[in-house]
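Memo to structure team: turn this sequence into structure tokens by end of day. - J.P.
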Amino acid sequence: MSENDLTVSRIIKAPPSTVWKAWKEPVHFVKWWAPAPIVTICKKHEFHPGGAFDTVMRMEDGTEHGGEGCFLEVIENQRIVFTDALRGGWRPNESSFFSAIITLEEHPEGTKYTATALHKNDADRQKHADMGFLDGWGTCIEQLGRVAESL
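Reply from structure team:
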């Protein structure tokens, strides 16, 4: 881990295969990707290396924030790596903010889920921290846990 990374981890009371399903299938993914009451719209979710990852988060006031990225690595029930530096088909985006590594590890209570956001510099890491990374991503993992536990 680098000093420019932010990490959050939680135990999800469901097996890695069920957590994986909640990540892989857009019908489940949209239920947990953004902290409620933000609504996630999944435009593209091509869950394979080079696949497009394109979402819109609709805020309570109706404003929308898009995020287009690319899945770099997808290892079933174990690891997901994505970035906003690229979009689907490995095409470069205009700008980038972070890449993320998601790991799923078997745990006696279910799955140890760890999300790490990698930033190119301290300023971007601090901006992400100031945006509420720990609370926001932590909340999303808790929501993911509820979705996975219900499957």
